[in-house]
Every structure is written in C-alpha cells, then in structure tokens.
C-alpha cells in the first residue's frame, strides 16, 4: 500500500463556500425539478410513472394478457430504470391503478389497491397489475417506431424512453401534483372527450383563445365526481395558470323513517371533493359535534358499500337541515378549494402554462412524433422495396443468375459477381442468395411484384405526409377521434352556478315557467309550454305525483331569470333565482324545498312572488290572517340573506298569508271565504308605506266565521274606470243585484275573476266593485250554488289572459279567460273544471303574456331585426 507523499496542505483545494453551496444546491434543485417532481408537458408523466409503464410494456403486460405480480413489475423498474427504493415505485404504481385518484386509470389493479378512506394497499407480493387498454393505445403505441428519443439508464446498461409517444394530452386528463425545490405543480384532472374536442378545435382554429376553448373544456372533471362552484376559478387557472377552484361534495336531504319513533331528516353524502379522505371527514364531523361547534346532528355513520358511497348524517328533530349542511360546507372538507398551479416541464424547463399552451405544446409534440414515425415507416418501406427491386431483377434474369451461382466458387464470389454483373447492392445480393426455391414460381413472382407496387404507393403517400402539415394534422385528428369513440366517458363533476357570479345568468335561457309547491314541502319548475290550452270544465293533466296525504299549496308563473320571493307564515322572506329551482316532469314529486331554502320545520310558506327588478316605485303589499295589511317598498328586499329576512312583524296568533306587488296609484280588492270583498286604494292616504319590521293596519272588518281568502291588485288606469262608473251609479249595492246566473253584455275588461273551491267561476267587471275606505265590511262578490262552497281565488284578468288552475290532488288545466263567462257580483258562475268528489280547487295563477303580445320579450327574448 502506498501513501501520498504530498503534505496535507497541498491536498486541500481552497473553495469559496458561497459559490460551492450555490452550485451544489442548484444541481440538487434541478435534479429534483427535472428528474423527480414535475411532469413533462408532452406525455404528462414524471420519470417514475414513465419507467413503470415502459417496464410493464417490455414485460408484455397489456390489457389482453394475464395479470402479473406487482412485485415483479417493481423489481424490473428498480433494477433497470429507477434506483430510488421499491416503496416509491410501488406507491406510484398503486396511484395509477386507483379510480378515485386517476380520471382514467393507466394500470388495471387486481387486489387491494387502497380506498378513499386512505386505507393502505396490500403489499406488492399480494397484488397484481397490467396496463389498461387506454395506456396501450394512447401512450405506448408506436414506441418502437423511433417516435421518441431514448437515453441511457442510471448505469448505462439499458435504454429508456425520455418521453412516451402520447396520443392524448395525458397531463390534463389525469392531472398531476408535485413539490419540487422552490416550486410546485397542482393540475386537476379533466374529461377525455372534452380534451379531445378542445384539441380538435385548436387544430381547426390555431388562433382560438383560452376562453373560447372553455366552450369545449368547461372545467376539470374530477375522479370522485362532486361539484365545482362557479367558473371564475376555472377561468383564472385556464387563462393565467393559477386559480382557486371550489369543490363541494354531493349531498341530499332525505327523511329517515324509524319504527316506533318520529321520522327525522338526514343529510346523505354520495360524492366527495377530489382527494378528500372519507374516514377523516367523518372523524372531523364527529369532533365538531362533540365540541358543540355544529349543532343539530344526532348520528353520523358510513353506509358505503360496493354499490357506491353513502354517508348518513342524521339530524335532531328540531334541526334545520340546510343550516347544518351549510355549516358542514364551511367547517369540514365537504367543501374544499383546489389550488390549481399549472406548472410543467417544457423543453426541460418549468413553465406556467395556460389551457391553450398546454394543448399547443402537446400538439407540437404529437406532430413531431407522427413526423418521426412517418420517417421511420418511409425508411423501412424504402429498405424493403430496395430488396424487392433486387428480387425482381433476379427473377427477370433467372437462368443467368442460377448459372452464375452454380459456377461460383463460394458465396463471397457469387455475391461479388452478382454486384458487379447486375449493379446490385450488397443487401440485394444477400437477398437473392437467401431466396428460397419456392419463390421462383410464377405465383410467388406475382406476389413480389404486387408487394413492390404497394410499397411504391405507400412511399409516395409517406412522402406526401412529410411534405404537407395539413396531412399530419388530419392524422392527429383521426387518431384522437378513434380514441374518443373507444375510451371517452361521460362527465362526472357538475359545474354549478355560484351565487357570486351573476354574469353567467346570460348563459341561461329566460323561458316562461310555472313553479309548484306542495303542502309537504316539495317544489319543482315546469315549462309553461308543456301545458296546452284546454276548454273549460275538463279534468286536465296531472301536474305533480304526490303522496296520498299531500296537496298543492302554491302555484305561480314566472320567467327563469326572475327572483322568486318566498314568504312564510312567520313573516320571514327567502329568495331564489327561478332557474335555481330544479326542473321536474308533470309526474315527478319535485325537490324538497329544504334543500334549497333554510326554512325551519315550524314555518310554512304562504306566498310566492316573482320579481323582475327591485325598484323604489313598486311596493309589496302584505296581508295577514287576522286582516292586518301593510305596504313596504320593494327595494327593501333587494338583498335577502341566505337565512332569510324579516318582512313583517306579527301579533300573537297571527300569520302572514298573502303578498302582492303594487304601485302607489293602484287599488286592492280583498276577498273573503263567505264571498264578500272590499276595494280600496293603495295610495299613502289609505295605506301609508311602512318599514319591514312593522305590523300594519286593519284591512277589512270580517263577519263571524268568515276569513280572508286572497287579494288582487288593480292597476291605476282601471281604478279611474271604477271612479267614473261609481260617479255614473253603475257599481250597484248589495240590495240591488242582477238575477242569479245572469250573464252581462261583453265588455272590454278588466274583470275580477272569482273561482270557488267547488269548481265554479265567473268574470265580474271591476266597475261593479266601488271604492271604499279601508277597514269596512265590504260588499258581495259572489253567491254560492251549493252549501259549503267557499271562495278559492280572486284575480284581476283581461280577456286575452290564460289561467293555470290546479286542484288539491295536483290536477292542472290551462284555460283561456274567454271560456269563462262574464257575470254580475250576484251570480254563482259556471263550471270551470270538473272535479272528483274528494277534490277541490287549490290555486289559480295567470300565465305571463308572450313576447308577441307585449311587442318585446317578457322573458328576455330580444326584438328581432327586420
């Protein structure tokens, strides 16, 4: 053993510590960024994932071959390509096989590969794996056709691909997350079909913008489904590379039946936000309940099975489900934010990419891969055709070549003589010498000639592909279209409208709809066009499939862009946009209203009002069960909190029953169950405006046993007609009434539409209802044909109006006002709807006028250009 004779000070190399630390740390950082943490923008894979897929490809583990032990795959990857420990390799393999982690799995797993509860997978010696069909067809296809570069592995003993020849934008398809040094990436998964549609749009229009691409790729499509609230975070991520996307689980409110105990509401969770641990979520809810940070929950249990996820959060009897659900969204991972950071490697450098840049980088890579594949195919075709040309020369000079070979001293001599005599290449001469005798037949000669002709056509086609970019783009489109047809799946994640993004209302059609609410709290929205006008006295169509003990209570018509105000008997008002109410068919029960509004069980809806705009020149007129009335400016209700707003103060035992829109020059007609009515002005003398938290004044002095059934608003121009009729003595008194059932001459209207619970109705000219002072006894509005019949509805109508009439059993008819005859206040009316013995008229609503009737669109349809 020899030792250095140099003194120690000569073996020390002086180095500046700052420079050495900077150089070493930079090398380490770049190694982590490029070789470990960030995906490549071309195939969307990190090195470990790429090495696993390539090793499985080498092992022949395609989707149509048997599974192989995961330990075998991990061993191959570890020994050949990725010397970083078997745990890291197996963890990456497991993730590619989890359907709750990957939007489209790249590996098929057989065995325990973990769960959404964060349960660990079984050991690699127990599980088995193979590639999926998508991986084989879309990531590894043509890898032997020189489409991508290969490089040495860690010890130089093997060659590995530096990128896979992906046919789809895999980085956006399955997303990626990674923490490097000084930077991180977090890319959400997307829908395969939408990505291919967006890529096709980019090919057709290279100048397309990120926002235009969002018409094809509206947002992420997460493996666990769930909901995304709003589009602003998606828009930021797609246009800037960074954005916060709000995710929310899918929840419903159901009634749980208990034998021997009262039924209770429960929140049912069927889908979770992406990357949410189900077990940790349940534990978090339990902690909040124990710490009394969330009230109203009596039990939490996991009822998930192989058929799907189901978390049951049972509530106490006095709890309001919507309030509890909002608290869960706020305090638990049931609602979470996905911080999108669209960072990926482009030419070995980390770059923050927009949606179009992602697709452009992939498209450029795909064009390069097809170009390289075409060159490879061209070279192979030319090499084969070169040999065939030599064989054709041999066949055309067969006897001379046989003679030359038979008289040659050895193979080398024969080869040289063939080259020199017939100007052949060495490859052609070798092919002739190796040609079998059976290929000398005429049939085999024809086959060689046909193969040569086909190769010449192929070579011409390949040269044309290389010469024209549009041919390459056609190939890209064809390949991705085939993948879309075979592997695309429907979207799982629903992108919901956010309350903070009012601009997106422009994307919602403003159609005419009717909204129906039942006594047991079900609500639905139906297009008015689904009901055709019918003649009077028909049975109509079913408008709701209800329980036997349920009846329809509220029924209005509106436009989908309207704000709908819901007033409860306790004087609280809630608000929704009409389009936020789920659409239901005529035979559906609807959606429990507690899923949409925070209405406690003790409250009951009594009025529903559609509002187009909250202005100061309109008022809400409110009438209580005990006859107290008040008007409040509509603008006071323009900003209603999610948990409601006090609309009126009520006395003990009183309830808010009716709410109507009116202007200061209008008048009010109020009807009672015994068929009496009172008519007075809305002006500030009769009814001065009051604030929200006030009680109001008395409206009508009721007789014993009588009760109010409704009120209607008369517009100002009609009020003037009533004043003129009163001056002319045409209004009449209760002692001087037209004979029962006598019809009046046709008038231009408007009329007071009076309909009884027994199905009788009539139109009474409003001029017969003289103006009175508030708080009087009123005058007669109708007589009743049968004992026990009562007044059901009182509306102001015109001759061209249409009605929607609904019974307590949910039968709806749409009828023209013309079909109901005009009669006096003392008449009993005509039959407007045939009723079964146990049925009765429940509600009557007016259909909004069409765009043609008002000249311009009532529901947002713009006037057509000439």
Automatic annotation (TrEMBL):
GO aspect biological process, one term: DNA-templated DNA replication
UniProt-listed Enzyme Commission number(s): 5.6.2.2
GO molecular function list: ATP binding; DNA binding; DNA negative supercoiling activity
Active-site positions on this chain: 126 (o-(5'-phospho-dna)-tyrosine intermediate)
GO cellular component terms given for this protein: chromosome; cytoplasm; DNA topoisomerase type II (double strand cut, ATP-hydrolyzing) complex
PROSITE patterns: TOPO_IIA
InterPro entries named among the record's database cross-references: GyrA, GyrA/parC_rep, Gyrase/topoIV_suA_C, Topo_IIA-like_dom_sf, Topo_IIA_A/C_ab, Topo_IIA_A_a_sf, Topo_IIA_dom_A, Type_II_DNA_Topoisomerases
Gene3D superfamilies found in the cross-reference section: 3.30.1360.40, DNA gyrase/topoisomerase IV, subunit A, C-terminal, Topoisomerase II, domain 5, Topoisomerase, domain 3
Catalytic activity: ATP-dependent breakage, passage and rejoining of double-stranded DNA
PANTHER family: DNA GYRASE SUBUNIT A, CHLOROPLASTIC_MITOCHONDRIAL, DNA GYRASE/TOPOISOMERASE SUBUNIT A
Entries under NCBIfam families matching the protein: gyrA, PRK05560.1, PRK05561.1
Family: Belongs to the type II topoisomerase GyrA/ParC subunit family.
Role description: A type II topoisomerase that negatively supercoils closed circular double-stranded (ds) DNA in an ATP-dependent manner to modulate DNA topology and maintain chromosomes in an underwound state. Negative supercoiling favors strand separation, and DNA replication, transcription, recombination and repair, all of which involve strand separation. Also able to catalyze the interconversion of other topological isomers of dsDNA rings, including catenanes and knotted rings. Type II topoisomerases break and join 2 DNA strands simultaneously in an ATP-dependent manner.
Other remarks on this protein: Few gyrases are as efficient as E.coli at forming negative supercoils. Not all organisms have 2 type II topoisomerases; in organisms with a single type II topoisomerase this enzyme also has to decatenate newly replicated chromosomes.
Protein's recorded name: DNA gyrase subunit A
């Amino acid at each position: 053993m020899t030792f250095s004779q140099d003194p120690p000070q000569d073996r020390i190399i002086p180095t500046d510590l700052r420079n050495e630390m900077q150089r070493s740390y930079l090398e380490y950082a770049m190694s982590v960024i490029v070789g470990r943490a960030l995906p490549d923008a071309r195939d969307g894979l990190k090195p470990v994932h790429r090495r696993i897929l390539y090793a499985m490809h080498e092992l022949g583990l395609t989707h149509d071959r048997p599974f192989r032990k995961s330990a075998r795959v991990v061993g191959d990857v570890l020994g050949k390509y990725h010397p970083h420990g078997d745990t890291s390799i197996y963890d990456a393999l497991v993730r590619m096989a989890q359907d709750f982690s990957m939007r489209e799995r790249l590996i098929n797993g057989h065995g325990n590969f973990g769960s959404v509860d964060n349960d660990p997978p079984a050991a690699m010696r127990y599980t088995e794996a193979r590639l999926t069909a998508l991986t084989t067809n879309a990531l590894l296809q043509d890898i032997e056709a020189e489409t991508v570069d290969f490089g040495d592995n860690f010890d130089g003993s093997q060659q590995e691909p530096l990128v896979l020849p992906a046919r789809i934008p895999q980085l956006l398809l399955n997303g990626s997350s990674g923490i490097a040094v000084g930077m991180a990436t977090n890319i959400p998964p997307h829908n395969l079909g939408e990505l291919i549609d967006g890529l096709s749009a980019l090919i057709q229009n290279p100048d397309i913008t990120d926002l235009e691409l969002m018409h094809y790729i509206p947002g992420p499509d997460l493996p666990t489904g769930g909901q995304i609230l709003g589009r602003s975070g998606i828009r930021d991520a797609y246009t800037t590379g960074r954005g916060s996307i709000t995710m929310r689980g899918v929840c419903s409110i159901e009634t749980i039946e208990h034998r021997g105990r009262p039924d209770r509401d429960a929140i049912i969770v069927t889908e979770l936000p992406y990357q949410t641990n189900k077990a940790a979520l349940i534990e978090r809810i339990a902690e909040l309940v124990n710490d009394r940070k969330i009230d109203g929950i009596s039990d939490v249990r996991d009822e998930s099975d192989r058929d799907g996820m189901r978390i049951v959060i049972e509530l106490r009897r006095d709890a309001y489900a919507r309030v509890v659900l909002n608290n869960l969204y706020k305090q638990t991972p049931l609602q979470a934010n996905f911080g999108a950071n669209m960072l990926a490697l482009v030419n070995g450098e980390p770059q923050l990419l927009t949606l179009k840049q992602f697709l452009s980088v992939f498209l450029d890579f795909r064009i390069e891969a097809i170009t390289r594949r075409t060159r490879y195919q061209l070279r192979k075709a030319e090499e084969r055709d070169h040999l065939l040309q030599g064989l054709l020369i041999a066949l055309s000079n067969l006897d001379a070549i046989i003679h030359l070979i038979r008289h040659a001293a050895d193979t080398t001599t024969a080869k040289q003589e063939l080259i020199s005599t017939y100007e052949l290449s060495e490859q052609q001469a070798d092919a002739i010498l190796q040609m079998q005798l059976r290929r000398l037949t005429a049939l085999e000669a024809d086959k060689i000639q046909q193969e040569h002709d086909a190769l010449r056509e192929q070579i011409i086609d390949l040269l044309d592909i290389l010469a024209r970019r549009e041919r390459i783009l056609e190939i890209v489109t064809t390949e991705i279209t085939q993948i879309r047809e075979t592997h695309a799946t429907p979207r799982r994640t629903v992108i919901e409208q956010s309350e903070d993004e009012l601009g997106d209302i422009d994307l919602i059609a403003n159609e005419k709809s009717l909204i129906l609410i039942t006594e047991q709290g079900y609500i639905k929205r139906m297009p008015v066009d689904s009901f055709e006008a019918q003649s009077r006295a028909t049975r109509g169509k079913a408008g709701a499939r209800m329980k036997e003990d349920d009846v329809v209570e509220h029924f209005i018509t509106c436009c989908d862009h309207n704000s709908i105000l819901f007033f409860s008997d306790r004087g609280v008002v809630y608000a929704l946009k009409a389009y936020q109410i789920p659409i239901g068919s005529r035979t559906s029960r609807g959606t429990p209203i507690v899923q949409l509004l925070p209405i406690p069980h003790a409250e009951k809806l009594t009025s529903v009002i559609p509002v187009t705009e909250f202005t100061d020149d309109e008022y809400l007129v409110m009438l209580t069960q005990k006859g107290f009335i008040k008007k409040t400016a509509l603008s006071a209700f323009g900003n209603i909190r999610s948990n409601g707003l006090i609309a009126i103060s009520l006395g003990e035992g009183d309830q808010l029953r009716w709410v109507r829109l009116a202007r200061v020059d209008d008048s009010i007609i109020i009807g009672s169950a015994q068929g009496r009515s009172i008519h007075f002005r809305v002006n500030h003398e009769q009814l001065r405006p009051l604030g929200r938290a006030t009680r109001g004044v008395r409206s009508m002095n009721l007789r014993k046993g009588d009760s109010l059934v409704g009120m209607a608003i008369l517009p100002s121009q009609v009020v003037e007609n009533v004043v003129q009729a009163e001056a002319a003595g045409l209004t009449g008194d209760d002692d001087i009434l037209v004979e029962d059932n006598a019809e009046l001459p046709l008038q231009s209207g408007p009329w007071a539409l009076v309909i009884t619970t027994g199905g009788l109705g009539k139109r009474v000219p409003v001029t017969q209802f003289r103006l009175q002072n508030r708080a009087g006894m009123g005058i007669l509005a109708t007589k009743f044909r049968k004992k026990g019949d009562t007044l059901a509805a009182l509306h102001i109508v015109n001759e061209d109006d249409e009605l929607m009439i609904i019974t307590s059993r949910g039968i709806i008819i749409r009828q023209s006002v013309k079909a109901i005859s005009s009669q006096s206040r003392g008449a009993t009316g005509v039959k407007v709807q045939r009723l079964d013995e146990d049925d009765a008229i429940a509600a009557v609503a007016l259909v909004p006028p069409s765009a043609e009737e008002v000249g311009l669109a009532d529901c947002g349809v713009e006037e057509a250009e000439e």
